[in-house]
Amino acid sequence: MKINTKRILLMLIGNILCGFSVGMFQFASFGIDPFNIGVMGLWHLIKLFDYGTFYLIFSLILVTLDFLFLDKKKLGLGTIANMFLVGYVIEVSYWILSKIFPIPSTLIRVIFLIVALVILCFSSSLYYVADMGVSPYDAIPLTISERTGWKFKIVRVTADCLWVVIGLIGSHLPGVATILIAFCLGPLIEAFHPLCRRILDEKGDL
């Protein structure tokens, strides 16, 4: 894992955009990404703290499990940034969009859905390529893929579907966006990797 200014910047941008995209999904009201639908399902069951704080606490639990049982090399500054940024960025971005578009039309919601999907895939690829540690959740399918030789997109789709089930248990229903993300995120993240590597320029120098 290389550490330099450009990698740190790309990692931070990737995490912030990731949170912003989930806020856009939430605003569009067509469902959100499988991981957050699972976390929100648990949040609704437990009913403690605001979502940003609950996301942070849950991420701490996941990162502890990652550290004990999975590949420690997947964890780093990016993992910490994800834990402390994403949940709160989701809350703030959703609040801002709700103020700007208090009663959005169906067309506006569909546009936000499409843009959010593109941003989520791009931002996920961006912080993967920055190689400074992935989110506590992403470390799981990445490690399984590397250890088994199974394709990442297949492992990711399977993991996403499991989180949808957890969300259902917590009465947080999936939507069109949830299905799109569950089946498209893995392949689209891989599709963005060449672009993100060019942005990083491999050496990662400014």
What are the salient characteristics of this protein?
206 residues, mainly alpha, 0% strand, globular
Please, could you describe this protein's structure?
With 206 residues, the chain is an all-alpha fold. It has one domain (5-199). The chain has 8 helices and no strands. Helix 2 (34-46) packs parallel to helix 7. The longest helix is centred in the middle third of the chain and has 25 residues, at 106-130. The radius of gyration is 16 Å and the shape is globular. 42% of the residues are buried. InterPro entries: YczE/YyaS-like. The chain crosses the membrane at residues 12-32, 52-70, 77-96, 108-130, 161-189. This is Membrane protein YczE. Keywords: Membrane, Transmembrane, Transmembrane helix.
Global structural class:
mainly alpha
Instruction: Give the fraction of residues assigned to helices.
Output: over 70%
H and E order: HHHHHHHH
Beta content: under 5%
Q: Gap between N and C termini, in Å?
A: 17 Å
Sheet bearing the most strands, described? none
Number of domains: 1
Rg, rounded, reads: 16 Å
What is the averaged pLDDT score? 85
Query: How many strand segments?
Result: 0
Please tell me what the overall shape is: globular
Uncertain residue ranges: none
* Number of H- or I-type helical stretches: 8
Transmembrane segments: 12-32, 52-70, 77-96, 108-130, 161-189
Protein name: Membrane protein YczE
Keywords: Membrane, Transmembrane, Transmembrane helix
Pfam families: DUF6198
